[in-house]
Structure formats: structure tokens, C-alpha cells
Design goal:
The protein is globular and about 45 Å long. The two termini are about 15 Å apart. It has four helices and eight strands; from the N terminus they run βαβββαβαβββα. By secondary structure, it is α/β, with parallel strands linked by helices. Helices cover about 25% and strands about 35% of the residues. The longest helix has 12 residues. About 20% of the residues are buried.
Length: about 130
Amino acid sequence: MNFVSIRVITGDVSRLVAFYEQVTGAAATWATPEFAELRTEVCTLALASERTVPLFAPGSAEPAANRSVITEFRVADVDAEHQRLGSLGHEFVQPPTTMPWGNRSLLLRDPDGNLVNLFTPVSAEALARQDR
């Protein structure tokens, strides 16, 4: 089994696509006006309208209600991303901070309030984990 994507349900697909395109630098591929994907080297971030939820199970997902998942992106230089995104007007939950497990992390929220972590491995142990 391979983990290949995460899907975020939203009331405004265009708004979330614009946010994640700006944060990641990746261009979205639109399948329909209700569904788009941002593909990275290792995983896909899918963004879907709340109108797609009944296709799976009515009422099974709710936009802007996440309080437990953090979507994470490894970046080359988290401090540079902090500067870049700050200059674009993004507000941060936490500025770049070196975590006990060796990643330097920057935490912000997407327009629906979902947490997004940009991180750079900085300790020898974190760098070794990156190579797995």
C-alpha cells in the first residue's frame, strides 16, 4: 500500500487552490470546477468542493472543520519561505522554530483554517530521516 494523496473538502475550491499554489509553487490541475489537484514529487494534495461529499457518503466530511490534521510540506529553506510568504501578506500561527525532533518548522493556516506546516530538517537525525 502507498499513501498517495490527501483530500481537503472546502466551500471554495478556487480560494484554496490559489492559497496552495502560492505556498507550494505548484500549479493545480483541474479535473472539474469542483476538484483540483496539486501534485508534488511524492504526494498529491486534492482540493474538492463540499458538493462532492455525497459521492462518497452524504454528511461524511465538512469543510473548515478540521482540528486534528496538519498538512506538511518539506521545503529547502523554511526561513526563506517565512520571508516570502510574509511579504505576500500571510499571517503565521508560529514563526520558524526548531523542534525537538530536528525540523525547523513554520506554521500557518489555509483560508479554511486548516493548519499547514512548512519544515526543513536541520539536525543530523532529521536529515538522516529525510533520506528514507
